[in-house]
């Protein structure tokens, strides 16, 4: 009888310790992940710089893919899947580097359109004509994505419409 009672107590203690161990394993915060993982941190910094340089507008497809991979890397690291987080971050770095190259090419190809866009921004179109400007920006990213995927002629065909939108909000 005593052996049964000791066995039950020992079993209950083991279960209790396991439950306490699981409860104490907290999900890492995003800042913890970025501080502890150089590759994820590097991807985060490059994406932030790319956004400052408007890569999100000039190479939207690549930028969005890289940003999604950053988020996925952070989530994987938070759940302890460090190997997968590492490979996902590497993939994100490759994609954001290509997006930066694509953005340079788009800027070169759409130089005239960029001038009209800049004039519209300086004239206050984002605030004065918010809906129209947002519509123009959506169309701008669409045209930029044509170049990003190699359809330069299609982008050039759509430029006059957008130049008109930026000129007359």
Radius of gyration: 25 Å
The ordered string of helix (H) and strand (E) elements is: HHHHHHHHHH
Are there runs of 5+ residues with pLDDT below 50, and where?
A: 19-24
Strand content: under 5%
Helix content: over 70%
Query: Could you give a short account of the major beta sheet?
Result: none
Gap between N and C termini, in Å? Answer: 88 Å
Task: Tell how many strands the DSSP assignment holds.
Answer: 0
Structural class: mainly alpha
If helices are DSSP runs of H or I spanning 4 or more residues, what is the number of helices? Answer: 10
If you average the pLDDT, what whole number results? 87
Domain tally: 2
Global geometry: elongated
Can you put this structure into words, describing what you see?
With 169 residues, this protein is mainly alpha-helical. It has two domains: 29-103; 111-167, no CATH class. 87% of the residues lie in helices and 0% in strands. The protein contains ten helices and no strands. α2 packs across α3 and α9 runs antiparallel to α10. The radius of gyration is 25 Å and the shape is elongated. The model is unreliable at 19-24 (pLDDT under 50).
